[in-house]
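FIELD: query
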Amino acid sequence: MAEQALQALGKAIRARRETIEGLSQEGLAEQAGLNRTYVSEAERGLRNVSYRNLNKLADALELPLAELIAAAKRL
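FIELD: result
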């Protein structure tokens, strides 16, 4: 169950990033103040993203955290 939740969250992060024209993993990482590898692992569901970093990602994706989580739950 936990792995499925991480994969769904990763898919939601990737889907949102891909809606922002020209935003690469590297660009998202830079805007969020995170490492590109961290973002890549989060998008693939390999990283258990902390609450603090989830907030950073949501801010960089210009999306309220609650909406990002809701998007993950729908997947």
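FIELD: remark
The mean pLDDT is 97.
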